[in-house]
Amino acid sequence: xxxxxxxxxxxxxxxxxxxxxxWAARGITVVPLKVVFGTEMYxxxxxxxxxxxxxxxxxxxxxxxxxxxxxxxFAEVYDRLGRDYEHIFSIHIxxxxxGTIQSAxxxxxxxxxxxxxxxxxxxxxxxxxVDRVQTKLEEGIELEELRSYIRHFQERGRMAILPATLEYLxxxxxxxxxxxxxxxxxxxxxxxxxxxxVISPYAKIRGERRAWEAMGQYLADYAGPxxxxxxxxxxxxxxxxxxxxxxxxxxVRPDARILFTGWAGSxxxxxxxxxxxxxxxxxx
Amino acid sequence: MTAHDLAVALVDGxxxxxxxxxxxxxxxxxxxxxxxxxxxNLLLTVRAIREELExxxxxxxxxxxxxxxxxxxxxxxxxSGVILSQIVRGACSVCRPGAALTTxxxxxxxAEATAAAYRAVKKPVEGTMLxxxxxxxxxxxxxxxxxSLADTLETILxxxxxxxxxxxxxxxxxxxAGVVDAGGYGLLVICRGLAAVxxxxxxxxxxAARQRSRAVxxxxxxxxxxxxxxxxxxxxTSFLLTGTAVPKDELENFLAPIGDSxxxxxxxxxxxxxxxxxxxxxxxxxxxRHGGISEVDINDMHVQTxxxxxxxxxxxxxxxxxxRTAVVAVVAGAGNQALFxxxxxxxxxxxxxxxxxxxxxxxxxxxRLASDDVVVLPNNGNVILTAExxxxxxxxxxxxVPSKSMPAGLTAMVxxxxxKDAVANAAVxxxxxxxxHCAEITVAVRxxxxxxxxxxxxQVIGLIDGTLVATGEDVDGVLDDVxxxxxxxxxEVVTVLTSLNGTSLTDDDIAxxxxxxxxxxxxxIQAGGQPLYPILIGAE
Lengths: 284, 540
Description:
The structure holds 2 protein chains of 2 kinds. By secondary structure, chain A is of the alpha/beta class. Chain A has helices spanning 22-26, 50-58, 71-82, 100-108, 124-139, 143-156, 167-172, 208-222, 241-252, 266-272, and strands at residues 9-14, 29-31, 34-37, 40-43, 65-67, 87-92, 114-118, 158-162, 188-195, 198-206, 229-236, 257-263, 276-283. Chain B is an alpha/beta fold. Chain B has a 6-stranded mixed beta sheet, with helices on both faces. Chain B has a 4-stranded antiparallel beta sheet with strand order 2-3-1-4. The termini of chain B are far apart. At the A-B interface, strand 5, helix 4, helix 7 and helix 8 of A face helix 2, helix 3, helix 4 and helix 17 of B.
């Protein structure tokens, strides 16, 4: 049985994975969602890098929404990559949070090379899965083993978000049951989690300091002592948040391996709002 | 009219409706993903068809159907857009070059559209666009072949409206949010646009008429976060222009600089004119020089927009859905009442120290709540018994969390989860009370000796958890004492509810005292407006 490697297998994801600079060189293809300001549309990342999104939000005016990639975008990517690769692992934002998978699935119809996978997560959670899958391909892995790893991530992958305000999550309608969750008044900081495909409230914490502690506690509650932990951290126009989270998480688990840190993508930013930060973790 | 012209007109008709309804459809959007973009996605999908048609101008009849199918598929966005593209594809598959649009071709088109839509979805769910398409198709198939096109369309739209209305009951997510399906409604909107073009009624359908039909088709319940943007031009103006050969191009040129959304449909004998403008009089004056006018309809869209915003806001606030459990709290002071509401308290009973509410008053507020269970926060030692009495008088599960002060009640509210039952909520909320300390600063109503402290009437006194700890002549001195003593509990978060009228204290003085005495704590100072107590402090 031949191993799957980056020679014969390629990873496709979407821009809600919070792509980092190294991904392009490693051969990961990112299909952009769109940020929509009224009638103007921008490709997430390439046409609207996150810092520009927050500059624009500060100018006020109508708040943006997001739109999933079109079938054509995916079809073009699959066609192009299909010429050079035997397998295309197309790994995406949870279908409960976006219709992206639907576009990808339609585009992949009749294309045997493409496997569509729902990460059951989003943001740096999706990014963490993509990063791990790419690493496993770089090392060489059997297809079936790769698939079972993705299934493991679908079940066990977690993300914790500390938004500055619930306003953006509410507005985007992606907060689900946390809709009733209180934020803002009384200095209550809500912590939101993403796992099993949905976003749900994890805790309401009074006070900034305790909220950060609770972000660490989330990792402590999740991880078993024997687990190898892989972590990714992102921030949405929240200077210093990545460093602060890194210190807190390494304080809880000095052995955690932080695979990447950076900006949350623009579409993700539209929905979590400026001032948010998040990390994701997978135990292996 | 060529097949290409017809296709362009139909798509434009759908676009006009979709553009008008986009935000409504966005607001409705809770299923399958509550991302509030169904309207945008449908609009972008239909726009893509329009662009593809422009590119294929001059093509054969077959080429037109192909262009529409292609444009819809390649430009499809969102679940709704992808499904729509399949509906479009199915409908286009029955188009035959040169064939007239009859009841039987429409019926066939809807049947193919339904089949294609269902084929597109792996696990069809009822209460969505699929259901609405199928119901419209079924209604069409029951009509005799000689039914007029207008009657057929009316029947199809009526069936669509009923199907859209029913979606609320077909899907749990829609039922919970109290909305109809956004995609289904969007499809109805598109069909309405198509039908309006086919019957030549487009410009005659005023915004008001469309809103009336929406009252049946899809009542949006989501509350708008911000006021809607007002239209660039204020008056939606439409009329019928008849009699002579109407110079359409000339009219278009005339309207361009003074309005937008201009639609001129019909022929040289009878033109339906629709335009958004600030000056309907000028438009009508021009028209009477070129023919007869009738069916004049003018609507103030700015007023309509504001009314709609107000309607949506009153229909749903930030807490639209009744949870399993609701909280009723006894709260004094306008600021405090607003605060309790903001943290999710559904029922407020005015009252507190020296104005204890009766059990009947508590029951009356509870009776107005939709939830099964109720948690009561008495927020005063003297109200706890009354609350417990009220609990025994109701058939609902009512649990009292014995909060003795408003700050304590707020601490408990932080733990409240509307999806859990009253017993589970009461357990965590009561636990929270144990870690909260409450300080009160007030004025003694009589002379007394309490423990080591003797108090004279009108002296300022400070209590922590009901025990007298400080006395003095002014509020700031007692505040300082009280904060120093609270420091022993090493609080992390401090909430100060103020009612500073009649004192010389300001928020800044309080903030300075907090910074001096409790430098480690995160502090919030809120104007509470409670009587008798210039300052209430919660520390946890």
